[in-house]
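Exercise 7. Given the components listed, write out the predicted structure of the assembled complex. Treat all entries as one system.
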Amino acid sequence: MKARLPAVAPRPSPRERATKTSPVAKRVLDGDMRALARLISDVEEGRPEAREVLRTLYPHTGNAPIVGISGPLGVGKSSLINQLLQHLRGKGKTVGVIAVDPSSPFSGGAVLGDRIRIERDPDDTGVFFRSMASRGHAGGVAQSTRDALRLLEAFGMDVLLVETVGSGQVDVEIHDIATTRVVVVVPHLGDEVQTLKAGLFEIADVFVVNKSELPGSERAVKDLQELAYLSVPRDGWTPRVVPTSAAQRTGISELWQAVEDHESAMRNGPGAEAGRKARAEQELRELLRERIERLAEEELGKEASWKTLLQEVVAKETDPYSAADRAFQELKRRI
Amino acid sequence: MAKSPPQTEASKQGKGGRPIRVLIAKPGLDGHDRGAKVVARALRDAGMEVIYAGLRQTPEDIVAAAMEEDVDLIGLSILSGAHNVLIPRVLELLKERKATDVQVFAGGIIPDEDAAKLRKLGVRAIFGPGATLATIIETARSLAAKRVARA
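Answer.
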C-alpha cells in the first residue's frame, strides 16, 4: 500500500457524469467551489433541494477513505489535521475536511475555531475546509456530516477528514461514519485505568499519542499498546499506536501509513462487506428515525388533546407514564 | 411534542432561516486580538455561528475562508493602521469572486475620514472604540437580513 488507495470501480468521465445530472450537481462535479459551499449549507439546514442533489451525486461517492479524528479538547487534533494536510498535498492528494464543534445549548451559537491551526495557500483548490456547528436539528448532525462528506467526494476530494471532540453520543455517531477511526490523546491524560473505560477507546483503529515530545509519552504509548493487544481484533485488525508531535512535525507519515494499512486491510479483508453493511444499515436507520420522529411530532402537534394531556401532567392529575401511553395509542390510531 | 430548537428566532436570520454565519478575522500584522475575540463571543451568545480565523490573515486567506464557510458576514478587526490597504483588497477579492452579497464590517482604530472612504468602497459598518456589543449584534443582524434579501 504505497501510492494510491485502490478504487472500487473506475469513475465515469466528467463529461459522462455531467450529461446525466442536475445543473447544481453538475457544478459540484465540475469543481465549482461556491456551489459546493452553498450545498453544504443546504445540507446543514436539511433542505429538500439538497436531498435531490445528493440523490444524483450518490453514484459518485463511497470510494474515498473517510478518516475520523477524535479526542478530548486541547490534544492537538486541528494541528494534526494541519500536518496531515501538508503531508497529503505533498503526495498530490486532494483533501476535504469537516470540523465539527458544539453549538451552545443556550444561545444556539458557536465559535468555530479549528481553522486557526490550518496553514495553507488560499489559492490551493486541492483543499476544502469547512467548519460545522453541531446545532440541534432533527436530522442529526451525523447525517449532515455524512452528506457534506459525499459532496466533498463528488467535488473531487481524494481523502476526507472529519474532526470531532469525541465525547458524547453524537460524536461517536460521527466517528462511526469514518472508514478509519483515529483517536488522539496526549501524555498524562490519566493512568491505564482510563483506557479501560467504555467509549472512544473501544472504537479506535489507530491511536495517536500527540505532543510526544512531552515526558510521559512512552508510558502512554505502552499503555495503549497493551490495550490494543488485549482487545479482540475487529475484522483481523489490531489497533495501531503512533506517537506524533505536531509541533516538531514528527510521526505524520507513520500516522498516514497506519491509516492506509487499515484502509487496505478493510477493503480487501474479510470484514470489508460487513463494514459496508453496518455503515449502510446505520444510515438507513438514522434517515428513517428522522422521518418517523418528524411524522410523530407533526401528528401530535395537530392534536388539541396534546395540550390537555400536557396540562394534566403539569398539574399532577396524571403521571407521565400513563400520559405517554395515551399519546402513543392516539398516535398509532392516527397513522 | 415539538422539540424546542436551541436557536432563538432572532438568531435564525441567515440564509434559509439558518443561524447567521460570521467570519471574524484579523488581516495584517498587529497581534491585538482581544477585541476580535470579545466580538466573536458576543455574536456567539447572540446565537450566531462564528468562524474565528484569528491573527495575521491575508485578504486572500480571508476571502477563501469566507467562500468555503459560506458566511453571511465578514468582520475585520485592524489596529495596525493598514486598513486603507487591507480592507479595500478584501472588497476587491469579493468582487472578483462575484461574492459581493457577503456583507463586510470592520472594527478597530480607524480615523473618521478613512472610515468614510471605506464606507464608500462598500464596508457596511465600522465600529471604533466605545461601540457597544449590543450595537454590533444589532448591526450584524440587520446586515445578514440584507444579504438574504439580495440573495
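Discussion: The interface with chain A takes residues 1-3, 5-8, 11-12, 15-19, 21, 40-41, 43-54, 58, 60-61, 63-65, 67-70, 97, 99 of chain B (CB under 8 Å). DSSP finds five helices and five strands in chain B.
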